[in-house]
Every structure is written in structure tokens, then in C-alpha cells.
């Protein structure tokens, strides 16, 4: 009988320890930046009622939702993003301090067609300000994006900026009725993936005349920033943001955006946007909450990590959080190794004690394969002289010394 082969669902991934080390390092940096700007962490459930999710994103997005009936025959769904759950929280907890500044790092689920940079389970790292209509709030989000990317060693990136107000105005000037605005924007949003002729055909299929389509594209090409966008860029630059560019064809596909919209792209790899967000002033009220303005962004953890690896942005990053392997030389010296591991941990050094008595060569190969840079050996000679042998696996060198000196060397590395 053939042994059945285990499989993983398309669009979902396992993350082995070396991948998790990079992901956790990114999360740590993002969390540090978010908190430095005064944002506090929030978490929401993986499942939401369907009525919370539906009618907020637009037709295209709803096709990608995981919706189903639970065992109680309730209509539920996996969350599609973190913005709608945040808005639901604001509706449920009306006494939160305003402005409410929160960040959230959790997985979301979309039935995407799997391809480079597109997965069905992804981690979003969101940061949002609720309750402020000031352009300062928008600018601060842009500054956070730039600060995060700079700290992650990104240099060749561009923050594209536009406004739904600018776009709605262009559509109105082309003679298109307001009730068609959202469907027109969904077509314009495809200009990043399709050429102009293909988008023009789609607009024609939606009932626009050739004259109207020509006027619409002329308006897009001649579009200029409004006063709000100019102020946002000025404020963001004063806060340290870099690489912000006005882009009149930027739409952002979700229906809930009302004002400024922005996303970040890199030249390489061809992976799509690595951050995206904007102002969503009506969403909380739509969920039955108070009329609160809101603005924020998501930073895509998965694409960020893919870029870091592909661009080799962290060439010297360790592949393991463990700094030292403490070897076991003999049964008689096992207690010495046990005591040494405890001392190292008390000194704040991540160390691993080899769990059994094996040949020293096997223990060294284990450390090398796991990416542990240092090995400490306590043999009978070392125990007698109250010293240790510190081995640097990368440099292929070793020296015998007092434990205190070994600790200083490891900490300095």
C-alpha cells in the first residue's frame, strides 16, 4: 500500500524556525516604532459575524472572503482585514479614549489566487488613529510607515499618495453620476495590473461613452494635489517621512476609504504593495457606532519578510536566537555543563544545553547546522583549571579562558 502523502492547503505556509526568527524580528521592530508614536496594542477574534464583514469592502473583496455556517448555524467568516474588526470594536466600546490610537498584529484570510507575494493567510500589522480628522493624523501614519521601513533597512521604496476626494472630483468633472463612483474606481484601480486599453474596455462595458472615458483619463493625467494632500506631505516630511509621491491613479480597492489613500511599493522584487491604507471616516458609524473619523495603514508582514530575504537586507542576521551551545563532555562533567547553562541564562545569554552524551564532533555539527555561533566545552582539563574552551564556529577558532571573559566575548558579538 502506498503511503499517503501529507499536504498543505494552497496559499498557506509552514514557517520553520529560521523563517520565524526573521518574522519575529520584524514584528519586534514594528511594535517598537508603533509604541514610540503612542499606539497601544489591540487584538480581535479570528471569526466575525457575516453581517459585520459584508457590505463594507466592495463586490470584488467579498468574493475572496471565507464565509460559512458554524455548528450553531450562525453565519460567520474569517476576518478579511483588521480595519473592519477595529471599527466594530469602536462601535462596541463607546467609552474608549478619543483619539484612540491602536496597533494590531494578527493574521487575516483571503481566498486569493496563490502567487508570488499573495497568500491566503497573511499577517497584517495595522496602526490606526480613531477620532481625529486632523491632517496631522494622516501625516503621522505616513511618518510611521517611513520610520518602520528605514529601521528594517529598506531604502529603495516609494510611498504613493492620493485622495478619494480628488478622485471623486475627477469623476464628477468627467460627467459621471456619483452613484457610479465606486464601480468606476474599481476599474481605475486595475491600471497597476492592466493597460489603459483594457481598463477603457471595462469602463465601456459599465456603460460609459467613449467621450466620457477620454475625459476621465485626461482628468487623471492632469490631476493635482488638493490643499489637504499638500499639508499632509509637508507635515509628514517634518516628522521624518521620506519618498512620498503624489500618484493620481492610486485608488486602493476597498469601498470604505473616504479621504487620503496611500500605499508603499518597492522596485524589486515585483511583489505588489508592502503597505496600504488611508482614511475611512464613515465605517464606524456604518457598523452602528459613533460618527468617528479614522485613518491608518497596514504593513504586510509576509511581503516585508519576502523582500528582506530576497534583497538580502539583513546579511548578518543570525539564523537562530541561540547564541551558545553548551556541550556535554562526559557523564561525570554533566553537572558542570548544567551549572554553566544556568549561569549563561542568568547573564542574559540564550544558550542550549545538549541533551545527551554524544561524541563532541556530533554536538559541534548540530550547533553548526542550527546556526548557533558559539560552543562552550568543559572537559576534564577545563574543569580542573576552572576555565572553559570557547569555540567560534564561523571563524573556526577556539581559545581557553575564564568563564567571565567568555561571557564578555559572547555578549560583545
UniProtKB/TrEMBL annotation:
<feature type="binding site">
    <location>
        <position position="110"/>
    </location>
    <ligand>
        <name>L-histidine</name>
    </ligand>
</feature>
<comment type="subunit">
    <text>Homodimer.</text>
</comment>
<dbReference type="GO" id="GO:0005737">
    <property type="term" value="C:cytoplasm"/>
</dbReference>
<dbReference type="GO" id="GO:0006427">
    <property type="term" value="P:histidyl-tRNA aminoacylation"/>
</dbReference>
<keyword id="KW-0547">Nucleotide-binding</keyword>
<dbReference type="InterPro" id="IPR004516">
    <property type="entry name" value="HisRS/HisZ"/>
</dbReference>
<dbReference type="InterPro" id="IPR015807">
    <property type="entry name" value="His-tRNA-ligase"/>
</dbReference>
<dbReference type="Pfam" id="PF13393">
    <property type="entry name" value="tRNA-synt_His"/>
</dbReference>
<feature type="binding site">
    <location>
        <position position="124"/>
    </location>
    <ligand>
        <name>L-histidine</name>
    </ligand>
</feature>
<feature type="binding site">
    <location>
        <position position="252"/>
    </location>
    <ligand>
        <name>L-histidine</name>
    </ligand>
</feature>
<protein>
    <recommendedName>
        <fullName>Histidine--tRNA ligase</fullName>
        <ecNumber>6.1.1.21</ecNumber>
    </recommendedName>
</protein>
<dbReference type="InterPro" id="IPR006195">
    <property type="entry name" value="aa-tRNA-synth_II"/>
</dbReference>
<keyword id="KW-0030">Aminoacyl-tRNA synthetase</keyword>
<keyword id="KW-0648">Protein biosynthesis</keyword>
<dbReference type="GO" id="GO:0004821">
    <property type="term" value="F:histidine-tRNA ligase activity"/>
</dbReference>
<dbReference type="InterPro" id="IPR004154">
    <property type="entry name" value="Anticodon-bd"/>
</dbReference>
<feature type="binding site">
    <location>
        <begin position="81"/>
        <end position="83"/>
    </location>
    <ligand>
        <name>L-histidine</name>
    </ligand>
</feature>
<dbReference type="Pfam" id="PF03129">
    <property type="entry name" value="HGTP_anticodon"/>
</dbReference>
<dbReference type="InterPro" id="IPR041715">
    <property type="entry name" value="HisRS-like_core"/>
</dbReference>
<keyword id="KW-0436">Ligase</keyword>
<dbReference type="InterPro" id="IPR036621">
    <property type="entry name" value="Anticodon-bd_dom_sf"/>
</dbReference>
<comment type="similarity">
    <text>Belongs to the class-II aminoacyl-tRNA synthetase family.</text>
</comment>
<keyword id="KW-0067">ATP-binding</keyword>
<dbReference type="InterPro" id="IPR045864">
    <property type="entry name" value="aa-tRNA-synth_II/BPL/LPL"/>
</dbReference>
<feature type="binding site">
    <location>
        <position position="128"/>
    </location>
    <ligand>
        <name>L-histidine</name>
    </ligand>
</feature>
<dbReference type="GO" id="GO:0005524">
    <property type="term" value="F:ATP binding"/>
</dbReference>
<feature type="binding site">
    <location>
        <begin position="256"/>
        <end position="257"/>
    </location>
    <ligand>
        <name>L-histidine</name>
    </ligand>
</feature>
<keyword id="KW-0963">Cytoplasm</keyword>
<dbReference type="InterPro" id="IPR033656">
    <property type="entry name" value="HisRS_anticodon"/>
</dbReference>
<feature type="domain" description="Aminoacyl-transfer RNA synthetases class-II family profile">
    <location>
        <begin position="1"/>
        <end position="304"/>
    </location>
</feature>
Amino acid at each position: 500500500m502506498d503511503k499517503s502523502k501529507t499536504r498543505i492547503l494552497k496559499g498557506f505556509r509552514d514557517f520553520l524556525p529560521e523563517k520565524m526568527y526573521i518574522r519575529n524580528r520584524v514584528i519586534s521592530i514594528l511594535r517598537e516604532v508603533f509604541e514610540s508614536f503612542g499606539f497601544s496594542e489591540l487584538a480581535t477574534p479570528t471569526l466575525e459575524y457575516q453581517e459585520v464583514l459584508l457590505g463594507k469592502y466592495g463586490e470584488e473583496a467579498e468574493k475572496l472572503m471565507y464565509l460559512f455556517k458554524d455548528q450553531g448555524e450562525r453565519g460567520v467568516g474569517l476576518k478579511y482585514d483588521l480595519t473592519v474588526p477595529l471599527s466594530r470594536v469602536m462601535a462596541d466600546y463607546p467609552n474608549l479614549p478619543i483619539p484612540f490610537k491602536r496597533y494590531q498584529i494578527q493574521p487575516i484570510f483571503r481566498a486569493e489566487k496563490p502567487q508570488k507575494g499573495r497568500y491566503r493567510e497573511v499577517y497584517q500589522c495595522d496602526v490606526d488613529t480613531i477620532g481625529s480628522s486632523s491632517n496631522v493624523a494622516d501625516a503621522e501614519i505616513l511618518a510611521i510607515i517611513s520610520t518602520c521601513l528605514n529601521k528594517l533597512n529598506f531604502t529603495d521604496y516609494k510611498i504613493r499618495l492620493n485622495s478619494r476626494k480628488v478622485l471623486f472630483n475627477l469623476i464628477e468633472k468627467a460627467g459621471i453620476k456619483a452613484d457610479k463612483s465606486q464601480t468606476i474606481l474599481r476599474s481605475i484601480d486595475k491600471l497597476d495590473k492592466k493597460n489603459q486599453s483594457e481598463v477603457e474596455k471595462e469602463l465601456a462595458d459599465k456603460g460609459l461613452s467613449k467621450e466620457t472615458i477620454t475625459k476621465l483619463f485626461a482628468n487623471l493625467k492632469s490631476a493635482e494635489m488638493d490643499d489637504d494632500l499638500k499639508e499632509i506631505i509637508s507635515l509628514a516630511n517634518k516628522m521624518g517621512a521620506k519618498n512620498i509621491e503624489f500618484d493620481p491613479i492610486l485608488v486602493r480597492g476597498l469601498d470604505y476609504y473616504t479621504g487620503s489613500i496611500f500605499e508603499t511599493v518597492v522596485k524589486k522584487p515585483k511583489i505588489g504593495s508592502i503597505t496600504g491604507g488611508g482614511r475611512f471616516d464613515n465605517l464606524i458609524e456604518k457598523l452602528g457606532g459613533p460618527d468617528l473619523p479614522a485613518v491608518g495603514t497596514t504593513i504586510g508582514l509576509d511581503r516585508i519578510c519576502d523582500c528582506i530575504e530576497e534583497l538580502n537586507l539583513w546579511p548578518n542576521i543570525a539564523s537562530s536566537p541561540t547564541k551558545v551551545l553548551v556541550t556535554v563532555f562526559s557523564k561525570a562533567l554533566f553537572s558542570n555543563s548544567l551549572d554553566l547553562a544556568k549561569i549563561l541564562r542568568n547573564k542574559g545569554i540564550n544558550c542550549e544545553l545538549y541533551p545527551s552524551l554524544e561524541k563532541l564532533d556530533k554536538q559541534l555539527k548540530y550547533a553548526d547546522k542550527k546556526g548557533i555561533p558559539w560552543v562552550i566545552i568543559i572537559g576534564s582539563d577545563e574543569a580542573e583549571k576552572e576555565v572553559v574552551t570557547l569555540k567560534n564556529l564561523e571563524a573556526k577558532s577556539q581559545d581557553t579562558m575564564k568563564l567571565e571573559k567568555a561571557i564578555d566575548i559572547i555578549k560583545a558579538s
